[in-house]
Amino acid sequence: MKVRNRFIAFGALWCGFVTLPAMAATFEVPRSFEIMYVDLESAGHFGNDFKVDIDEGQHQIVVRFNKLLRSGGDTQKYQSEPIVLDLQFEKDTYFTLKAPYISTKKQAEANAKDPQFTIYDNVNGQDVDYKQQSLKTKSGLQNTRDYVSEIERLTAPNSPSNTNASSTGPVPAPIIMTEDVALEMMQFWYNQSDDATRKDTRIWIADDMYKPTVANIQLEMFQFWFNKADKEAKKALQAWLVE
Question: Which tens digit of pLDDT belongs to each residue from 38-57?
Answer without folding.
Answer: 999 988 888 888 999 999 99
